[in-house]
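PROTOCOL LOG
Step 1. Enter all chains and additional molecules of the complex.
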Amino acid sequence: MSGAFRIPGAGHIDRAQPLAFRFNSKSLQGCAGDTLASALLANGVHLVARSFKYHRPRGMFTAGNEEPNAIVQLERGPHTEPNLRATEIELYAGLVAASVNCFPSVDFDLGVLNRLASAILVAGFYNKTFMWPKSFWKKFYEPVLRNASGLGVAPDAPDPDIYDRLHWHCDVLVVGAGPAGLSAALEVARQGLRTVLIDEAPEPGGTLLQRPAQIGGIAGAAWAARAAAELDGLANVLVLRRTSVFGYYDHNYLMALERRTDHLGPGRAPGIARKRLWHFRAARVILATGAHERPIVFGNNDLPGIMLANAACTYATRYGVALGRRGVAFVNNDHGYALALDTQAAAGNLSLIVDARPAADPELARRAAGAGVRALQGHVIARALGGKRVRGVDIRTCAGTNAGRVECDHLLISGGISPAVHLFSQAPGTLRYDARLACFLPDRASQAVEVAGALNARLQLASALADGKAAAARTLAALGRAPAALATSAALTASSAASAGFVPPATVAATAAGTPAPGPVPDELHIEPLWSVQSLLGRKLPGKHFIDLQNDVTESDIRLAAREGFRSVEHAKRYTTTGMATDQGKTSNVTGLAILAEALGKTIPEVGTTTFRPPFTPVTFGALAGRDRGTLSDPVRITPMHAWHAANGAVFEDVGQWKRPWYFPLPGEDMQAAVARETRALRTTAGVMDATTLGKIDIRGADAAEFLNRVYTNAWTKLAVGSCRYGLMCKPDGMMMDDGVTARLAPDRFLMTTTTGNAARVLDWLEEWLQTEWPGLKVYCTSVTEQWSTVAIVGPNSRKILQALAPDMDLSNAAFPFMTFREGEVAGLRARVFRISFSGELSYEVNVPSWHGLALWQAVIDAGKAHGLTPYGTETMHVARAEKGYIIIGQETDATVTPQDLGLAWAVSTQKDFIGKRSFARVDTRRTDRKQLVGLLPRDKSFVAAEGSHLVASPARAVFDPASGSPSIGHITSSYFSPNLGSGFALALIANGRALRGQTVYCVRDAGPQPMTVGDPVFFDPEGKRRDGID
Amino acid sequence: MRYSIFSLVRQAFAGHRGWDEAWRTPEPKKQYDVVIVGGGGHGLATAYYLAKNHGVSNVAVLEKGYIGGGNTGRNTTIVRSNYMLDDNAHFYEWSLKLWHQLSTDLNYNTMFSPRGVLNLAHTEGQRDQYFRRGNRMLLNGIDAEWMTREDIARFIPHLDCSDNPRFPILGGLMQRRGGTARHDAVAWGYARAASALGVDIIQNCEVQGFAREGNRVVAVETSRGRIGAGKVGIAVAGNSGRVAGMVGLKLPIETHVLQAFVSEPLKPMLDTVVTYGAGHFYMSQSDKGELVMGGDLDFYPSYAQKGNIPILEEAVAAGLQMFPILSRVRMMRHWGGVMDMTLDGSPIIAKTPIDNFYLNGGWCYGGFKATPASGWVFAHTIAHDAPHELNRAHTLERFETGHVIDDKGAGPVAQWH
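Step 2. Run joint prediction.
Step 3. Record the structure below.
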């Protein structure tokens, strides 16, 4: 037995598959096909939650995605998930769930003490108090508020599951597989269009599964199953179940979240992505997203056992669950009235319908009488009675006269409908308020979309089916397909009444532009708007009158907001927090704004709605990230020599996406010792570095030299083939952007090198100028960073080592001078050898196709054994280049530094034009007291300043003094200990620094200012003799 | 009526029927000494300080929709003054000082919570940059603190401080006096306080043009008629270009979309603001329990106050690098605001080529934290027809002279800031 409240024989559940589960530590049983909510209700469990502010007992209020109350924490440990709606959780064996926001338990919750202060805890109370004493807000008041708020608890372990992202294109995307969506999907799918049908439920059907229905003589559920089977069988159709479309973006881009394994239980589908995030691009969209039912506000309308009528009907019809023994319904419209009677048909427990209208539809009234249900017309419920469960209602006439008290253990409410316009509105589409139907309906669309079904206020089955077909016909017309030969199979065609809703051809033409079918919406509701019983009766009634159940917002909160001037619907929302809970106000927003309108003496359309934002239902962050997790979050780029580096003990550092050897410690060495050894080798014997990561761009075309002339600050047209040149690139403001050596491979072909981290950015930059500013230039840029491996052989012995590998290459200074390159064979490999230097030493950078990178590296290592060759990493490279005063982009520069600031005026042409040139004429760029690059030597040779330290003119200025302004005159950009100098040294940017040469500045640090002497940024071999080799 | 626990209790006994309107709702007068266009935090603060500091209370704030409905009501509420360049540092530091007393000053709890702002560093180079920034802050009398990876691991238990992330955390620059505030309350608090000093706040009043005589603006044409103005200040970030265009000014500003998003509410798990250094992502937890997050611009100029999914996915992926435990938590809502992006990342609070027309804009995506100081110095600039010491550098002309304030060191492209 799966619960005392199970209705024998009813529901689409599998009684043969009982499922044991635990809720709040209690063992219970449900059936396959249940949701957690239906299983709890089958066991008579209504009290499942405590409200946010007042900790009032709450029960299931809906049967779907709009649920405000039944928020639970599902599972424990790494699989736990906070804030799920019990109405959406499919039951599985062993499920464990617990209530949130209550202590010690949902039955006995100490939080009810808040109720003692409930007269104070009105909308915006926190803005009016907690201001004294000032320091108490952060220390006391706020922590108390924070601990009181929040619902569930985040997991405390990483997620064991995986997630996928998919992209899908289709002709027609149908959202919602209720009767309208199914009938629309059938129409377009049969025309061979690439069709996608999506529904959040486990099976298509929508309301066909939730109410008793007949189509063409068969049961609605069976019809839905056959329709789904037909669609599943078509190759051009994708039917997604358990999938929620949550966002409608520009260009008919829709997003959906598919839940693939949640219904199986945690860990039961290893290797399968738990959720999939679908990106859809659809030529046309049909929205058949249905409608939410709306409550009526009366006293204590939040008690467990009080539920929307469609939810009660769903529990009875779909899940075979009765909500209690004795029910009452409170309605103001025929739809709700009919739902109450449908519930009665399945559950047989309804005793009374309280209808605020003078009369109901006569047919419905007859049905009520026939079912033995008493109907009170022109009456309202003023207050519900009870504590943890409703146990009765106080009834009054619409004139306010007391009409007695009726006992009940559950109460169905229907105050009208709120079509689920969310996606339509996001698109964005405008809404119109239909006063007759008392709801907002889609009006003008801005994208290629049609609406159908209850979203379009077609509530009757026949008209929903017809409306779906009509939307399909408009869609087909817009796609240039005639809505030809419609299927005539009896089983798959709605009753003859359905076709009456077909839209005439004129309308089809008009709607192709994206406007929903105009024309009168049939009134299938016969509603008499009733938002609040208090306002109908014009008097204050006992109890709390809730609008937003999850955020505990009451009618009086809205009225208070209006009184205090929060008249805009957005202000009222933000002040009261109506609609800001996890349900985003699906059952409360319209009621809230209607009551606000009344309080302000305005009409509902004058007040308007708040903005509908994505997501329609919450989206798991893991699914948004997809596989962009851990090491896959950003590509790890390694060079072909990486394995050698790793095997030889390299410590790596991240440089952009690259892993570069930082240093190669020998056993027992720390970083300092390793770098000292590597630096010494480079200056005395030889070093070898993997320089593969430097960006390499192949620039080709008749205008290549002219192009370089424009992007670099120096001149390029006369560079000889076979030669290289150091180039500077500036942004239009004249600030340094990148630097590197570029070689001329042929008259129309250059190889540009860029800094490692900027490679992609520089290529983007070149392309942007070529494509947007100079489309006339014949130039093509290709990244070849990964096509070539680069081995830099550096140091006095480098020539000998290279000669051993390239015996045929004349490496003499005369034949192969500095800043040239040669092509030839190195270690038996086709190679480009560049004689350039980033260390001041004689140096050759050998490039071979990447495939041979490791072979070359190994050959160099072997050949270097006899010459003291030592592999080194980026840290040694930094020390060596800093000793020479060579800059690193991003370290010496930060986009506020000009070439002149760095002492590189020699590389800036005064003749030709180039990007950034005109900015050198600006007042600020011409200032002579700009920060300039200088070298610093500490008075205490052992002192190595921290990079990022600031410099002041005197020790006294090393602290902040508001009277004398900012004391910093500059900062240290690079700082190392140089074994070659036997001293610490630094590069720094100092205001008017070149004029300070020979003077002392002070490096600010916690332990007291350190004196340093300003000098030239070149510390080593200023004449540059070493780059030609030491004989 | 003064707000306090006593008035709250008194009203509780009176059914809360005695509360006044938070701010008056007057009909626009024919003429004001100063008209402020834009009823966001900055415009309202400007009006408040005009009245309070300069005795100029014949002031109207014109708002096309509802006050605080633009970026004031859309941002991620981060307040900090961790700026490096002097021109910004002292301005934002003054702002932070004003934040610390704002609730008391306005008699409105803006829920300012100095819970700290931590910028994570993931590489040596980034650490050096934060050293440079932090050291400069200290020299400017602004609090800054370097936190090691171990410090951070203790401070933020759920942050992945292991070697597992693609870019492991090396440390971070912390400003403890920074934090968050309730954005709406800032607009409402300023509105209430300004209104009490005589400022007229006029909502649903869209500016459609300006009437000029010579090089002066004499009136503002609005959807509620012509309103005469002795001086006009605009504080309409996100729409600065459009409004300034109505007087023929072309601004060095591009308009971009920036998105923000929140999770469902959770029990407290993060008691600070933390920013990712190896990508673009930042997060804090609101008093209601929602995780408030943001990422990068959408990278196309737009006035649409909504964004698209790709940037969101990127931001979330970055967020999960930091907090892998959030993978099963769910996003509840995402939205967008439009940003005035300047070419150096710093705002413009200045006189303009039109004699009595003043500009407050170009806030990029960091205007919220500046609200108090922005109002303070803009009021000064309008009242004295000359900038305050703290906004002397925030001119329009700097883009011509080159004296830009590029705190991030990003360069002259709007979307790089």
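Step 4. Note key features.
Residues 485-515 of chain A have pLDDT under 50 and may be disordered.
Residues 461-478 of chain A form the longest helix (18 residues).
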